[in-house]
Amino acid sequence: MAFLRLMILMLIPLAVIYASLLAFLCARHGERLSEEYQPGASARERQAFVKAGVRAYAMRIRGRLAAAVFGVPLAGLAVHIYMTNTM
Questions:
Q1: Which of 9, 20, 27, 78 has a CA-to-CA distance to 49 between 20 and 30 Å?
Q2: How many angstroms separate the CA atoms of 21 and 28, rounded?
Q3: Inter-residue contact 49 to 37 (CB < 8 Å)
């Protein structure tokens, strides 16, 4: 029971870290896309290009980021508790 309570309490800061990392990575990718876009085009086209690129990037990175942010610490905690209790 205490293990589940600890896991739930860990999910709150991990969710904040996940949201912060996703926002940071998408903003950085958006800056890279806006620098990459051709300078002769209009601002509206540039904004649409960047928005579409960031949306595609966010969809691509969400699963890996969630696995890294949520899966690794929770799996590490589970392994630590298992090894502590069995050895």
A1: 20
A2: 10
A3: yes
